[in-house]
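Lab channel / #folding
Pinned by the channel admin:
"Please post every new chain as: sequence first, then the structure tokens as a reply. Keep commentary short and put observations after the output so the thread stays searchable."

First post following the new format, from NK:
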Amino acid sequence: MILTAPEIDPGAFAEHTGWEIKPEGACKADRCVPLPGAPEEGPVPAALLAEPLGMALVHDAPRALWALGPESGGRALLSAQMPELELPDRHGRPFSLGSLRGTRVVMVAWASW
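Reply from TO:
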């Protein structure tokens, strides 16, 4: 979910993720995850939902946006930073992705297996 504030409307959260915010916590199908400190009414802080539900929460400060989710099953990224990577360019010379720092990069990977 892309958010314009660090809080989430419970109805929109249920619509986009399937998780309903109830008095017992966040519930989806037959499982509920307790959310200690969750407000009984109104928006819920995204940070309160992220860790218990296994969703990454990333903040883009220059654009005042937050991204939450999807569920990762415990394999969430710790950051949105690309690790340092050096690969040969089309002429065989080493090329570091770090040289592009500060610019947007789309990396596409493909494998035949």
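NK: The first strand starts at residue 2 and ends at 3.
TO: also worth noting, The two ends are 31 Å apart (CA to CA).
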